[in-house]
């Protein structure tokens, strides 16, 4: 009865199945936490989504930016592409998208001592705020008017949390922090332009901090599992990012690097990795 967490799969179905076999994952007794970006760019996004849906009672999923892109394409407010079009053309497309729309942006387990969000949790949010605000945008995505809401999210721009701002600006910040965040300024203001690798040992890169190293970051009681940031580590650096507060599991399988899983129901996380052929090349 193991609990595993996995980084961004992004439709790399063959690598996904390979690592599940390596850890002897059994959906009848084990649980898999999936840190978002289930699909898009990988060459077998439909197979990946169908498989995850088939074991949905054995997984905990949080949504990533590529999952929102898929939902937006289904809603007709974003262009499709060759890797997600098979999902949109599938006979069970509505069933898959409706299931995906009802997945959370935040998952946590106090007993295990972990929380999970695709890009992480805003340095401006404490635990209670993160629960409240994740629930707020989950209700929007699950509602009947989700298409209009997503359309507004594409138009609205917000990189700093302000509880006095317009509701859509607040929700844009919440959504962006959960699915797109990497760097922030000292006061917690998010920067969405920089996507490279920070100097992890110093926590500072070109005046920006990784969100988890932000000097003004609020305290958080659980260790945060996240994905999204494949350039956080590289071939000459660590093979994955792990410290006392966070565990980063996006290790660039899509780009021909590694796919990473971590066992969470142990005293310290047990890391298992495989080398990936890569569905795309840098």
Q: What are the key terms here?
A:
single chain, 282 residues, alpha/beta, Purple Acid Phosphatase, chain A, domain 2, five-stranded mixed sheet
Structural account:
- With 282 residues, the protein is α/β, with parallel strands linked by helices.
- The chain has one domain: Purple Acid Phosphatase, chain A, domain 2 (4-Layer Sandwich).
- The chain is 29% helix and 16% strand.
- It has helices at residues 13-22, 45-54, 65-74, 85-89, 93-101, 127-142, 146-155, 167-179, and strands at 3-6, 31-34, 59-61, 107-109, 114-116, 183-184, 190-191, 209-210, 223-226, 241-242, 246-248, 258-263, 270-275.
- The protein has a 5-stranded mixed sheet, with helices on one face. The chain has a 5-stranded mixed sheet with strand order 4-5-9-11-10, with no helix packed on it. A 3-stranded antiparallel sheet has the order 7-6-8, with no helix packed on it.
- Helix 6 (127-142) crosses helix 8 (167-179).
Architecture per CATH nomenclature, i.e. the level-2 architecture: 4-Layer Sandwich
User: How is the CATH topology named?
Assistant: Purple Acid Phosphatase, chain A, domain 2
- Point out poorly predicted stretches: none
Rounded to an integer in angstroms, the radius of gyration calculated over CA atoms is 18 Å
Number of strands: 13
Name the CATH class.
Alpha Beta
> What percentage of amino acids are in beta strands?
15-25%
Instruction: Write out the strand line-up for the largest beta sheet, numbering strands in chain order.
Output: 3-2-1-12-13
Percent helix: 25-40%
Query: Could you say which overall geometry the principal axes of the C-alpha atoms support?
Result: globular
Q: What are the secondary-structure elements, in order, as H or E?
A: EHEHEHHHEEHHHEEEEEEEE
Number of domains: 1
> What's the pLDDT, averaged over the residues?
92
Distance between the termini: 37 Å
- Count up the helices: 8
Structural class: alpha/beta
The CATH superfamily is Metallo-dependent phosphatases
Q: For the report, how would you describe the main beta sheet?
A: 5 strands, mixed
């Amino acid at each position: 009865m193991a609990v595993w967490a996995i980084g961004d799969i992004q439709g790399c179905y063959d690598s996904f199945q390979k690592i599940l076999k390596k850890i002897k994952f059994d959906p009848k007794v084990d649980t898999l936490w999936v840190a978002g970006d289930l699909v898009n760019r990988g060459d077998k996004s439909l197979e990946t989504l169908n498989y995850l849906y088939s074991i949905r009672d054995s997984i905990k999923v949080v949504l990533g930016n590529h999952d929102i892109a898929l939902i937006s394409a289904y809603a007709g407010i974003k262009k499709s592409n060759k890797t997600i079009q098979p999902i949109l053309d599938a006979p069970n497309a509505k069933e898959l998208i409706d299931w995906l729309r009802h997945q959370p942006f935040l998952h946590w387990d106090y007993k295990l001592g972990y929380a999970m969000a695709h890009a992480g949790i805003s340095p401006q949010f404490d635990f209670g705020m993160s629960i409240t605000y994740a629930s707020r945008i989950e209700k929007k995505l699950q509602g009947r008017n989700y298409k209009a809401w997503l359309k507004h999210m594409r138009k609205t721009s917000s990189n700093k949390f302000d509880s006095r701002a317009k509701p859509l600006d607040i929700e844009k910040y919440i959504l962006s922090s959960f699915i797109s965040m990497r760097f922030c300024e000292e006061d917690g203001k998010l920067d969405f332009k920089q996507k490279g690798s920070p100097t992890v040992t110093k926590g500072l890169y070109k005046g920006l901090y990784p969100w988890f190293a932000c000097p003004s970051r609020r305290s958080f009681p659980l260790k945060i599992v996240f994905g999204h940031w494949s350039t956080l580590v590289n071939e000459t650096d660590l093979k994955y990012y792990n410290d006392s507060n966070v565990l980063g599991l996006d290790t660039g399988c899509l780009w021909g690097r590694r796919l990473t899983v971590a066992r969470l129901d142990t005293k310290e996380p047990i890391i298992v990795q495989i080398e990936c052929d890569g569905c795309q090349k840098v």
